[in-house]
Every structure is written in structure tokens, then in C-alpha cells.
Amino acid sequence: MIRVPETLTLDKIKRLEKQPVIANTPILESYLAVLKEVAFLETKMTPKERKVLEEMLIATAEERISSPGTTEEYLTVKDVAKLLGISPQMVRRHCLNKNIISWRTLGETGEWRIDIDQYRNDYTYSKRLEAILDEKQNRKERKQKLITTVKELAQTPGYAEMFDDINAHKGSQVD
Questions:
Q1: 64 with 57: CB under 8 angstroms?
Q2: Fewest beta carbons less than 10 Å away: which of 44, 71, 102, 112?
Q3: Are 170 and 162 in contact (CB under 8 A)?
Q4: CA 43 – CA 65 distance, rounded (Å)
Q5: pTM, whole model, 2 decimals?
Q6: Rounded to whole angstroms, how far apart are CA atoms 112 and 55?
Q7: Distance CA 122, CA 56 (A)
Q8: What secondary structure, in 3-state letters, does 56-69 show?
């Protein structure tokens, strides 16, 4: 069940929204918007309505994960280094100097995300960019397959007990 942490009130969410780190990070902005909406609605909803909202939020999250173009509209430093044939450090330097359109995930401390559109229509990079995007799509598909497998495994009887057995076995091997 999706719940807003009790320590995260509507007032705190509104203050967080004004932080530059969040204001410049679309995913965090979206996450806070959802939290704010859930916090507001939880006070006015019946349990049945809460359940419907929860199912809608889960479906939306799953759609965002599975639909192309929503979470992969950026390149990483490693991707751009490969694309341009320069070192990752040079890419970071170009990002800092604003020679490359980019942003950071956690304000001034997070990883760089580089706008893909600046390379999309450039014939010089088209083949390399296509290869990088194919590789990213393959990684995404493998990750999705792993998530599905873990979900299926979690549904099998005795799943939790399996970890208890492993931990008990590890404890008995300590010298």
C-alpha cells in the first residue's frame, strides 16, 4: 500500500518543492507531486477509494517504467564519452562549463544527465547514438525481466523461509 511517511506532511512537501535540487529534477518533482496528492487525498478518502487510487498510481508507475522515452530521454556521462570519443572526465568538464546541455540528479552532487536531443539530429553521431540507445534498451529489457522473475519468485511458497534457512546456515559456519 502506498502511504506518505507520517513525518512527511503537506507543509513539508510544499517546502521541499521549493528546493532548487527538486525544482531542477523532473523525476523528483513528479514524485513530490504524487506524494502531495496522496497526502491530501488520504485525509478525505474512504478505504475503498484509497485502494482505487493506489491501483491507479501503481499502474501509472508501471507505465512510466515500461514506456520508452519517459525515463531514457537522457544520456549518461559514460554514454556521451563513448559517443564523442573522449574521456568521461572531459564530458563532466564540458557539463560543468555548460558546453553540453545537462543537469545533475541531486543538485550539485548527483550524477550528470545529458540531454539526448543535442545529438539526435547530428549525422556525425547518428550511428554511434543508435548503438548506444540499443544497448540502453537491451539493459532496460534485462532489468525488466529480472524484476518480473523476482516478483514471480516472491510468490512461490517458502520464499521467505528460504532466506531464513540461508541465514541460519551462514550463522552455523562462523568459526
A1: no
A2: 44
A3: no
A4: 29
A5: 0.46
A6: 33
A7: 39
A8: HHHHHHHHHHHCCC
Contact 143, 72 (CB under 8 A): no
DSSP 128-146: HHHHHHHHHHHHHHHHHHH
Amino acid (one-letter) located at 86: I
The 10s digit of each residue's pLDDT in 31-63 is 666 677 767 766 777 878 777 777 776 666 655
Sequence-distant (≥ 6) Cβ neighbours of residue 117 within 8 angstroms: 101
How confident is the model over 137-151, as pLDDT tens digits? 898 899 888 888 877
Residue 107's φ and ψ, nearest 5 degrees, are 70, -120
Residue 73 is classified by DSSP as S
- How many CB atoms within 10 Å of residue 107? 15
Cβ neighbours, 10 Å, residue 168: 9
Q: Which of 134, 139, 101 is nearest to 119 (CA)?
A: 101
Which of 37, 86, 81 is closest to 60 using CA atoms?
Answer: 37
Name the residue with cell 546541455.
Answer: 101
Contacts of 28 (CB under 8 A, 6+ apart): 21, 22
Report which of 67, 22, 17, 59 is spatially closest to residue 37, judged by C-alpha positions.
17
Q: Which three cell numbers stand for residue 151?
A: 516478483
Nearest CA to 144 out of 58, 25, 57, 64 is that of: 64
